[in-house]
Amino acid sequence: MKAVRYFGHKDVRVVNDMEIPKPTGEEVLLKIGGAGVCHSDLHVIDEGTITGTVFTLGHENAGWIEEVGSDVKGYKKGDAVLVYGPWGCGHCKPCQQSKENYCDHQSEMAFGGGLGLNGGMAEYMLVPSSRLLVPIYDLDPVIAAPLTDAALTPYSAIKRSLDKLMSDEYVVVIGVGGLGHVALQILREISGATIIACDVTDEKLAFAKELGAAYTINSKDADAAEQIQKITGIKKAKVVIDFVGASSTIELGSKIVSLDGDLTIVGLGGGLYQYNMMGLPFGVRMTNPYWGSRVELMEVVGLARQKKIHIEIERYKLDEAPEVYDKLRAGKIKGRAVLIP
């Protein structure tokens, strides 16, 4: 079968000689409908964050069950499913709570399919356990594939602050990209807070307005923090969610977050923050969440089925993967690119 393989630092190739796996025990073989292309892939490819192994890329995956192992119950050939991305041990306390993204044994394991183990940028994908599947019912797998990260990650980040996102508060979203544009929709649907969106291009700021932002600010402006504070007043923003994670955006977030607020850094921009006692308002909770739980992915599917959220996608063939990564590096993908076998 055809697959997009990672062979090492900056070495990605489309191959045609992979054998189709045969599932045994708890394993499930999926016929892939779509595999999302994520900025996290570039951290693997360009920075070599995963070393010493060759694997198929793609950690945002959806498709139809092709075959199940002898121990699998509750699924049959043809069922449409998502693959939950972070693969834990399945036995520790966080895993039993469906939070495999925070598995106790994460440091001893590969992160999951497409992140150290074979992912879904292929015609077929072998999933190690049916517990890692989430039914999507009537959703199109091509459209649904990015839900596993581009929607799950912001949804989980927002949920941890939901008690602070009241109708008399402000929330700032920094970065209206693959995750940020979904975050705006989620905030619009499940919170009452007034939404302020920040990005560096007029096109993305206009897009943010379409998706529910009440205000937009160009974060390149030297007075971006002052512009935001004119909107929020002295109370500032109760929640700031940074989908960039660069030093400049973390600094912006620290200036605009309120007392007892949440500064949540999701983006992997490699930024640094120099802590000092007076650098943040008192009571601020500064966090760096990773992905989300499998139960939260079920809730994301519910939002998508109700048509409350959607992901802007661009469709490509597997053979086009190298060119798609070049476009992603250049910032020329709007929303999410999806590879279709």
Draw up the topology in text.
Blueprint: E1 3-8, E2 11-15, E3 28-37, H1 39-47, E4 55-56, E5 60-68, E6 80-83, H2 93-96, E7 112-113, E8 116-117, E9 124-127, E10 133-135, H3 141-144, H4 152-159, E11 170-174, H5 180-190, E12 194-199, H6 202-210, E13 215-218, H7 224-232, E14 237-242, H8 247-256, E15 257-265, E16 285-287, H9 294-305, E17 313-317, H10 321-329, E18 336-340
Parallel strand pairs: 7-8, 11-12, 11-14, 12-13, 14-15, 15-16, 17-18
Antiparallel strand pairs: 1-2, 1-4, 3-5, 3-9, 3-18, 5-6, 6-10
**CATH-level-4 superfamily name of the largest domain:** Medium-chain alcohol dehydrogenases, catalytic domain
User: Got a strand count?
Assistant: 18
Tally of domains: 2
CATH topology of the largest domain: Quinone Oxidoreductase, Chain A, domain 1
Strand content: 25-35%
Shape: globular
Task: Please count the helical segments.
Answer: 10
Largest sheet: 7 strands, mixed
Low-confidence stretches: none
Instruction: State the share of residues found in helices, binned by percent.
Output: 10-25%
CATH architecture title of the largest domain: Alpha-Beta Complex
Please give the CATH class of the largest domain.
Answer: Alpha Beta
Give a structural overview.
This protein is an alpha/beta fold and 341 residues long. The protein folds into 2 domains: 3-149 and 292-340, Medium-chain alcohol dehydrogenases, catalytic domain (Quinone Oxidoreductase, Chain A, domain 1); 153-287, 3-Layer(aba) Sandwich (Rossmann fold), CATH 3.40.50.720. Helices cover 25% and strands 26% of the residues. The protein is built from 10 helices and 18 strands. It has helices at residues 39-47, 93-96, 141-144, 152-159, 180-190, 202-210, 224-232, 247-256, 294-305, 321-329; strands at 3-8, 11-15, 28-37, 55-56, 60-68, 80-83, 112-113, 116-117, 124-127, 133-135, 170-174, 194-199, 215-218, 237-242, 257-265, 285-287, 313-317, 336-340. The strands form 4 sheets. Strands 3, 5, 6, 9, 10, 17 and 18 form a 7-stranded mixed sheet that branches. A 6-stranded parallel sheet has the order 13-12-11-14-15-16, with helices on both faces. Strands 2-1-4 form a 3-stranded antiparallel sheet, with no helix packed on it. α7 packs parallel to α8 (247-256).
